Amino acid sequence: MTAKKTNSGFLKKVFRICLRVILILFVAHFIYLLLLKWIFPPVTITQLNAWISGDGLSQKNRSLQEISPEAALAVIAAEDQLFPQHNGFDWKSIERAIDFNEENPERVRGASTISQQTAKNVFLWQRRSWFRKGLEVYCTFMIEWIWGKQRILEVYLNVAQTGKGIFGMEAASRFYFNKSAAKLTSKEAARIAACLPNPERYSVIKPGAYVNRRTNWILRQMRNLRGDPSIQAIIQP
Hints:
The protein has eleven helices and three strands; from the N terminus they run ααβαααααββαααα. With 237 residues, the protein is mainly alpha-helical. Strand 2 (161-163) and strand 3 form a beta hairpin.
C-alpha cells in the first residue's frame, strides 16, 4: 500500500507540474501573439532553419504603407482570393484538396489560406503532421480574432519565403530587382508571387515555363480583383 500511495503521489505531482508548464506556455504564447499585433516577429523557425542550413537569411520588415499595393494584390490573387471574406479557412478548397489527395496520394495538394500560412510561418515549422495542423488551426483562429485581415497580410508580406534564404517582399525586391518593395510593378510582384508555392525550386530571375504561365495567370486575376472594394480596403492602408 505504501508503494502504491508513493507512486500515486508521484504521478499526481508530475501531472500538476505538466499542467503548470502547459499553462505557462499557453499564457506566454498568448502574450507573444498579442504583442505581434504591433511589432514584427524577431525571427521565425523557418528563417532559423535557412540560416543554420547555410542558405543565409535576408529579411527586412516593412509596414503595409511601405510595400507596393501591387505586391499585396499579387499574393491575394495567387494564394487566397477569398481572403477578405473567410474566417481564416477556405472550407471548399480544403474539401477539394482532401478529395484530390485521396485520389492522388503521391501528389499532396494544400489549401492553406494566407491566414493559415501566416500562422504557420510565424509560430510553427514547415514539416507536415497532424499535430502541427492542429496547432495551425488554433494559431489561425487567434490571429484572425486578434490581428485582423490587414495585419495578417502585412505580416505575411514580411515573413513569406520568397527565395533561398530570402524572406518577405522587401528582401525579395532588393535581391531580384534592386529596388524597394514600395516600387514593385504589377508584373514584378506577380513574378515573386508565382514562385511562392516553392521559392527554393522556382526562379524569379530566370523563370521557367511554369513560372511564366503562372505569372500571366496571376496578372489576369489581379486585373479581375483590382476593383473589389473588400480587397482594396485591405491593401490600401
